[in-house]
Design brief:
Layout (H helix, E strand, L loop, with lengths): L6 E6 L5 H9 L2 E8 L2 E9 H9 L4 E6 L2 E12 L6 E8 L5 E11 L10 E4 L4 E7 L6 E5 L8 E3 L11 E2 L6 E7 L2 H11 L8 H10 L1
């Protein structure tokens, strides 16, 4: 498996609940849970700086050391505060050497489409990640996609992207549009201008608010 997987030192969490989790964070810890492999979920405490540093670097697989034992875990979910800026909780799943997992890999677009040289041409990329299935050892941080060859009218579908490892399986709909180059017509520009100047019917915020209050 990941010989270079970062190590996280963990301690059992004796108590759970928002009040105790707050105390853990104030003491420099990160509340977390480890689950999977037919074992009961286990509340743990990680060093906040150590864990968050690795998470922000995009690491997903870790060697978790606790009570003299080591096991590999996969980061499954992250909890943020109400502002959505600070990590306050993390969920990990136990994994083994040969396990396959479903994950999302971010797409990194490389190159400038040749079609953008045409006046009015724009690049559209409706999705920025792919849903794939792969071995834990092959979890990709990003998948690079060369879009330099895209001309006006060309469409790059999910099925067209070459996955980094042959054993990876694409779970995203193969017909999903990843990128395409189009030319904005005068009609489209007029429609956009109409939406801006108020020709589109506005949302009646007041009526929605009153409906919620009645509920």
């Amino acid at each position: 498996m990941h010989e270079n997987a970062p190590t996280l030192s963990a301690k059992p969490r004796e108590r759970v609940g928002s009040r105790y989790a707050k105390r853990i964070r104030e003491a420099g810890g990160l509340p977390a849970v480890v689950y999977g492999h037919k074992q009961d979920p286990e509340p743990i405490v990680l060093d906040f700086r150590e864990a968050v540093s690795h998470i922000k670097k995009g690491e997903k697989v870790f060697s978790l050391d606790m009570n003299g034992k080591s096991e590999f875990v996969l980061l499954k979910d992250i909890g943020y505060d109400y502002l959505g800026s600070n990590i306050i909780h993390a969920d990990f799943a136990r994994v083994d050497l040969n396990e396959r997992v479903d994950t999302h890999a971010h797409l990194k677009f490389v190159g400038e489409p040749k079609g953008l040289k045409k006046a009015g041409a724009v690049l559209m990329h409706p999705i920025n990640e792919l849903h794939i299935n792969c071995l834990v050892t092959n979890l990709p941080e990003v998948i690079e996609v060369d879009i330099s060859g895209l001309d006006v009218g060309d469409v790059l579908h999910a099925r067209d992207i070459e996955l980094p490892v042959s054993t990876m399986k694409l779970l995203t709909d193969g017909d999903a549009v990843v990128a395409q180059v189009i030319v904005k017509t005068q009609a489209e520009e007029t429609a956009e201008a109409g939406a801006v100047d108020g020709s589109a019917q506005p949302e009646v915020i007041g009526e929605k608010k009153e409906a919620k209050e009645e509920d």
